Amino acid sequence: MNIHEYQAKELLRKYGVAVPRGSVAFTPEEAENAARELGGPIWVVKSQIHAGGRGAGRFTDDPDGDGGVRLCKTLDDVKENARKMLGHTLVTKQTGAVGKEVKRLYIEEGCDIKRELYLGMLIDRATSRVTIMASTEGGMEIEEVAEATPEKILKVAIDPVEGFMPYHGRKLAFGLGLEGKQVSSAVKFMATMYKAFMDLDASIVEINPLVVTGEGDIIALDAKMNFDDNALFRHKDVAGMRDEDEEDAKELEAARHELNYISLDGEIGCMVNGAGLAMATMDIIKLYGSEPANFLDVGGGATKERVTVAFKIILSDPNVKGILVNIFGGIMRCDVIAEGVVAAAREVSLSVPLVVRLEGTNVELGKKIMAESGLPIISGDDLADAAEKVVKAVKEAA
C-alpha cells in the first residue's frame, strides 16, 4: 500500500526523523491559511499524488506551465498556484500519459538547501535483509543513477539480529562526503528511519532528496513509503491513510473479492490460478508477439462467483482485445472455472476472442461445460498452443 508524501512525513516525524514543517490543503483557501500559519518568507506548494517526478511533470491543461511542485514567495502566490493545481491533471514519468488528478496539496516551509542526497531503505530479496541505499545523486531517479553511474550507489545490508548500528550510518555518511556534525545527524536520521521501517512493516522508505541545509542539518525534503499489505491488520492507523482515489479501480474491486490483480498496458487479458503460472502465461504471451493486459491469480480455492467477478474485471479494461484463461486444476477444479467463465461470458455479452486451456482435476467435465455452452470459446491443447491461438485471434480481429 502506498501513501502520500505528507502522510509519510507525518509518520516519520513521530519517530524523530527530521522533516520540514507543513500542512495538507484541499482548497486554495486552506493552502493560503496553511502558509500563513507556517510563516514566511518562502513556501513550497506540492501536488500530492502517488507518483514520482512531480516537479518535472506538467498539467494537461497547461503543458508549458510549471510542474507539480512550486516555490511561492507571497500568500497570494500560494493561493493562486493552489487554484491552478487542485482539480487539474498532472502528468509525470510515472503516471503515464493519462496522468492523475490533484485532489490535495502539501504546503511546506522553505528550506536552505546546500546539498541534495539520496537515501532509501528496502527489503533486498537476494540477501533477505533490510538494505540501506545512499547516493550523492539526490533529486534524480535512482534507477537512472544505477544505470548510468552504479558506482555512486552505496549499500549496507542490516543483519536482522544485530539491527541498525551506528557504524552502518557512519559508513554511509562518510561515503556521502558528510563531515563534522553532519555525520552524527545522518547516523541519528538513519537510526530513526530504520526503526520506523521495522515498526510499521514498511516495504520501502525513500528520501529523495535528503538535504544538507546551510546550517549542516540533515532533513527529509521528500518522503515515500510503501507498506506490506499482509501486515496492515497490525497498523490500523496506516491502513486508514489509504487513498482509494489514487488506486486502480479494477485492482480495488479485485481485492474486495480476494483476487490478486495488477493492471498492465497490454491487450491480452489473463486469468490464471497460481502466481508462478500467471507469470509464465504472461511471458509466453510476449513470446508469441503480444502483451499481457493484466496479472490475475484467482487462487487455489476460487468459487464460481469469484471467477465470474475476475472475468468481468478483465473485460472492464477497454484495452483488452482477447482473453486467455490458463488453469491447472489441483485444489481449483476445472469444472468450477468453466462454470464461472461461461456465466461471466453470458452476463457481459463476450465480444472478444476467448481461449481457454484447462488441465488437471475434472478437466473433461470442464471442457464439456464449455463445449455445450454455445459460446465461441477456443480450446487450447497446452499453454503454448493457447497463447499462440489467442494472439492469432486478436490479430485477425483487429
TrEMBL record:
<dbReference type="GO" id="GO:0005524">
    <property type="term" value="F:ATP binding"/>
</dbReference>
<dbReference type="InterPro" id="IPR016102">
    <property type="entry name" value="Succinyl-CoA_synth-like"/>
</dbReference>
<dbReference type="GO" id="GO:0042709">
    <property type="term" value="C:succinate-CoA ligase complex"/>
</dbReference>
<feature type="binding site">
    <location>
        <position position="46"/>
    </location>
    <ligand>
        <name>ATP</name>
    </ligand>
</feature>
<feature type="binding site">
    <location>
        <position position="208"/>
    </location>
    <ligand>
        <name>Mg(2+)</name>
    </ligand>
</feature>
<keyword id="KW-0436">Ligase</keyword>
<dbReference type="Pfam" id="PF08442">
    <property type="entry name" value="ATP-grasp_2"/>
</dbReference>
<comment type="pathway">
    <text>One-carbon metabolism; formaldehyde assimilation via serine pathway.</text>
</comment>
<dbReference type="InterPro" id="IPR013815">
    <property type="entry name" value="ATP_grasp_subdomain_1"/>
</dbReference>
<dbReference type="GO" id="GO:0050074">
    <property type="term" value="F:malate-CoA ligase activity"/>
</dbReference>
<dbReference type="Pfam" id="PF00549">
    <property type="entry name" value="Ligase_CoA"/>
</dbReference>
<keyword id="KW-0460">Magnesium</keyword>
<comment type="pathway">
    <text>Carbohydrate metabolism; tricarboxylic acid cycle; succinate from succinyl-CoA (ligase route): step 1/1.</text>
</comment>
<dbReference type="GO" id="GO:0005829">
    <property type="term" value="C:cytosol"/>
</dbReference>
<dbReference type="InterPro" id="IPR011761">
    <property type="entry name" value="ATP-grasp"/>
</dbReference>
<dbReference type="InterPro" id="IPR005811">
    <property type="entry name" value="SUCC_ACL_C"/>
</dbReference>
<feature type="binding site">
    <location>
        <position position="108"/>
    </location>
    <ligand>
        <name>ATP</name>
    </ligand>
</feature>
<feature type="binding site">
    <location>
        <position position="273"/>
    </location>
    <ligand>
        <name>substrate</name>
    </ligand>
</feature>
<feature type="binding site">
    <location>
        <begin position="330"/>
        <end position="332"/>
    </location>
    <ligand>
        <name>substrate</name>
    </ligand>
</feature>
<dbReference type="GO" id="GO:0006104">
    <property type="term" value="P:succinyl-CoA metabolic process"/>
</dbReference>
<dbReference type="GO" id="GO:0004775">
    <property type="term" value="F:succinate-CoA ligase (ADP-forming) activity"/>
</dbReference>
<feature type="domain" description="ATP-grasp">
    <location>
        <begin position="9"/>
        <end position="236"/>
    </location>
</feature>
<dbReference type="InterPro" id="IPR013650">
    <property type="entry name" value="ATP-grasp_succ-CoA_synth-type"/>
</dbReference>
<feature type="binding site">
    <location>
        <begin position="53"/>
        <end position="55"/>
    </location>
    <ligand>
        <name>ATP</name>
    </ligand>
</feature>
<comment type="subunit">
    <text>Heterotetramer of two alpha and two beta subunits.</text>
</comment>
<comment type="function">
    <text>Succinyl-CoA synthetase functions in the citric acid cycle (TCA), coupling the hydrolysis of succinyl-CoA to the synthesis of either ATP or GTP and thus represents the only step of substrate-level phosphorylation in the TCA. The beta subunit provides nucleotide specificity of the enzyme and binds the substrate succinate, while the binding sites for coenzyme A and phosphate are found in the alpha subunit.</text>
</comment>
<keyword id="KW-0067">ATP-binding</keyword>
<dbReference type="GO" id="GO:0006099">
    <property type="term" value="P:tricarboxylic acid cycle"/>
</dbReference>
<keyword id="KW-0816">Tricarboxylic acid cycle</keyword>
<protein>
    <recommendedName>
        <fullName>Succinate--CoA ligase [ADP-forming] subunit beta</fullName>
        <ecNumber>6.2.1.5</ecNumber>
    </recommendedName>
</protein>
<feature type="binding site">
    <location>
        <position position="222"/>
    </location>
    <ligand>
        <name>Mg(2+)</name>
    </ligand>
</feature>
<feature type="binding site">
    <location>
        <position position="116"/>
    </location>
    <ligand>
        <name>ATP</name>
    </ligand>
</feature>
<keyword id="KW-0547">Nucleotide-binding</keyword>
<keyword id="KW-0479">Metal-binding</keyword>
<dbReference type="GO" id="GO:0000287">
    <property type="term" value="F:magnesium ion binding"/>
</dbReference>
<dbReference type="GO" id="GO:0004776">
    <property type="term" value="F:succinate-CoA ligase (GDP-forming) activity"/>
</dbReference>
<comment type="similarity">
    <text>Belongs to the succinate/malate CoA ligase beta subunit family.</text>
</comment>
<dbReference type="InterPro" id="IPR005809">
    <property type="entry name" value="Succ_CoA_ligase-like_bsu"/>
</dbReference>
<feature type="binding site">
    <location>
        <position position="111"/>
    </location>
    <ligand>
        <name>ATP</name>
    </ligand>
</feature>
